[in-house]
Amino acid sequence: MSNTGATLFIEPWATMDLGNELRQLSSEEKYEIERILRGLSLKVAARETEIVRNVDVVAQFDLVLAKARFARRARAQEPVVEDAAGGDSSVLKLVNARHPLLGDKAVPSQLRWAATIPPSSSPARTWAGRPWR
């Protein structure tokens, strides 16, 4: 009988056993799929640390490659940092620097930035400096 009760379905006796067997096989198939997925999940869970580490490494490679592609497209160059006279400060030279979002409309600039750069072992990560020509 249908959900509304308006239609009555009649199944011949000859196909009744086949229908029951089909439902049984479908149920067994569902159980087997769940068993296989449960086993695979346990194997993946056992390697969680390695998988997370690999995802992090791939993400780092992806970031480096994205930066390289952007740098190539923007015709970017690595800035030059030179030691200034006096020892504890450095000069950052930007030659033909252009704003990357302005594209071909950008006007190249020559900049030199005198800065005190903390040593790499220092927790400070900022530069203190002033424009210098």
Description:
With 133 residues, the protein is an alpha+beta fold. It has two domains: 13-68; 78-131, no CATH class. The protein contains two helices and four strands. It has helices spanning 13-46, 48-73, and strands spanning 80-83, 90-97, 109-116, 128-131. It has a four-stranded antiparallel sheet, with no helix packed on it. The longest helix is centred in the first third of the chain and has 34 residues, at 13-46. The N and C termini lie far apart (90 Å). The model has no long low-confidence stretch (mean pLDDT 82).
Low-confidence stretches: none
The average pLDDT value, as a whole number, equals 82
Shape: elongated
Tell me the number of strands: 4
Cα separation of the termini: 90 Å
**Beta-strand proportion:** 15-25%
SSE ordering: HHEEEE
Descriptors:
alpha+beta, 133 residues, 2 helices, single chain, 4-stranded antiparallel β-sheet, 2 domains
Summarize the structure.
Strands 1-2-3-4 form a four-stranded antiparallel β-sheet, with no helix packed on it.
How is the topology of this model organized?
Layout: H1 13-46, H2 48-73, E1 80-83, E2 90-97, E3 109-116, E4 128-131
Antiparallel strand pairs: 1-2, 2-3, 3-4
